[in-house]
Structure formats: structure tokens, C-alpha cells
């Protein structure tokens, strides 16, 4: 019963992580740039701000929180290297989390319907766990890369701090619970398969042999298969 509940927790964590992976991939709030709009008459900051959101697939411009316009990138040149890598790695992560979720659900349903196919269930469960763990690596690389670039630019002395402020977007903050959910699912599925594998192998290979009477064996077996049926006292 305990393993049953643990497996359900792993499947739920994997499903939540899969949905969050889709969300952070679509969200444009990876890098937020806030620009101060200067007044052309007197050259002062009039209090209106323009915020720009740069995501993996689109960029949005919000002026004074009144109007927002989102467009896809016109060319790959406008994308930085961290966002380009994020496109590729997050696309693989979405595919891997989807396959891992399917494998985990199928192995769970298979265990409820067929009790004899233990090897197939454990292989599918182990595959799902490995895919989840690899997905966390693929998600972590662009998230850490983009965050480090934003922090570096935020403390860059060459950037005018009064007119430009670069911040981490909501997608980067949401990526960390996504990694945690997927990692928990992968660890649960891999650990459950590893802990149960030894017991399954022993159950499949060990055959029970009941104790046999020596005289009965001598009477029922063939002459060439009979063991030494003479007692030790007969040799004295």
C-alpha cells in the first residue's frame, strides 16, 4: 500500500511538472527590460515606463501598463544565445516529460491489470524516471544561463541605471518549482524500481523444492539417476 501511494505521488508530480514545462516555454516573461520614457520637450523623465518582455518565442512591449503588443521574433539575430539554447532544450524537455508521463501512467495501469509482467513494468517505470531526471537537466541549463546573464547586466556599470533596468521574469521563477516537481517524480520512479528489482529477480529465478524422502527418490528414479542409496552402516 505504501508503494502504491508513493507511485501515485510520483505520477502526480510528473504531471504537474510536465504542465509547468509547457507554461514556462510559452511564457514571454523570461527577461524583463524596463525603460524610462524621456520627454522630448524638457528632457526629463515624466514617470511613464516601457517594459519589454523577452521570451523564447515572442516579445511583448507594455507602455505605461495601458497597452501591450506581442510579436514573434522576426529573425534569429534578435535572439540571444541563452534564449536560442532555451528554445532547443525546452523543446526536448517537453517531449521527454510527455513520454515519461505516458510511461509512468501505463506502468501504473499495467500493474493494476496484469500482475505477472513485472519486468516490463519495471523497465517502463525506470525509463520514465530517467527521462524525468534528464528533463530537469535540460530545463536547468537555459534557466541558469539566462539568470546569470541578467544578473551580470544588472550590475554592469556601462548600463545607465536611471533609464534601463533588467530583471528576471516570472518564467524564470516558475522554472524552479517545475524542476523540483520533475526531479521528485524521477527520483521516486527510479528508486521504486531499484528497490523492488532485487525482490522481483529472486522471485522469478528461485524455484521451491519440497523436501524428499531418500528411499522414495531411490525407488522412483532411474538407475543412472539414483544417488547412493546405501546407508553408511552397510559399508562397515
What's the quick description here?
The chain is α+β, with helices and mostly antiparallel strands and 236 residues long.
List the SSEs and their pairings:
Elements: H1 2-26, E1 31-38, E2 45-54, E3 58-63, E4 67-72, H2 81-113, H3 118-154, E5 164-168, H4 170-205, H5 214-220
Antiparallel strand pairs: 1-2, 1-5, 2-3, 3-4
Describe this protein's structure.
The protein is α+β, with helices and mostly antiparallel strands. The chain has a domain at 2-29 and 77-161 and 170-205: Butyryl-CoA Dehydrogenase, subunit A, domain 3, CATH 1.20.140. The chain has five helices and five strands; from the N terminus they run αββββααβαα. A five-stranded antiparallel β-sheet has the order 4-3-2-1-5. A hairpin with a 3-residue loop joins β3 (58-63) and β4 (67-72). α1 runs antiparallel to α4 (170-205). The two termini are 60 Å apart. Residues 39-46 and 195-208 have low confidence and may be disordered.
Amino acid at each position: 500500500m505504501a508503494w502504491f501511494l508513493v507511485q501515485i505521488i510520483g505520477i502526480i508530480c510528473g504531471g504537474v511538472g510536465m504542465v509547468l514545462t509547457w507554461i514556462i516555454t510559452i511564457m514571454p516573461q523570461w527577461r524583463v527590460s524596463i525603460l524610462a520614457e524621456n520627454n522630448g520637450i524638457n528632457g526629463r523623465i515624466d514617470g511613464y515606463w516601457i517594459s519589454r518582455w523577452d521570451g523564447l518565442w515572442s516579445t511583448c512591449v507594455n507602455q505605461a501598463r495601458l497597452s501591450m503588443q506581442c510579436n514573434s521574433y522576426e529573425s534569429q539575430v534578435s535572439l540571444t544565445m541563452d534564449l536560442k539554447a532555451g528554445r532547443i532544450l525546452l523543446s526536448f524537455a517537453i517531449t521527454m516529460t510527455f513520454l515519461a508521463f505516458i510511461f509512468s501512467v501505463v506502468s501504473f495501469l499495467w500493474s493494476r491489470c496484469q500482475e505477472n509482467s513485472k519486468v516490463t513494468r519495471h523497465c517502463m517505470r525506470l525509463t520514465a524516471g530517467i527521462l524525468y531526471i534528464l528533463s530537469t537537466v535540460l530545463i536547468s541549463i537555459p534557466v541558469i544561463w539566462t539568470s546569470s546573464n541578467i544578473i551580470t547586466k544588472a550590475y554592469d556599470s556601462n548600463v545607465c541605471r536611471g533609464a534601463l533596468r533588467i530583471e528576471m521574469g516570472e518564467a524564470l521563477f516558475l522554472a524552479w518549482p517545475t524542476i523540483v516537481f520533475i526531479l521528485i517524480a524521477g527520483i521516486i520512479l527510479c528508486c521504486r524500481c531499484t528497490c523492488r528489482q532485487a525482490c522481483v529477480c529472486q522471485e522469478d529465478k528461485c524455484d521451491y523444492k519440497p523436501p524428499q524422502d531418500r528411499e522414495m527418490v531411490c525407488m522412483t528414479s532411474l538407475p543412472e539417476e539414483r544417488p547412493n542409496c546405501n546407508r553408511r552402516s552397510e559399508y562397515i
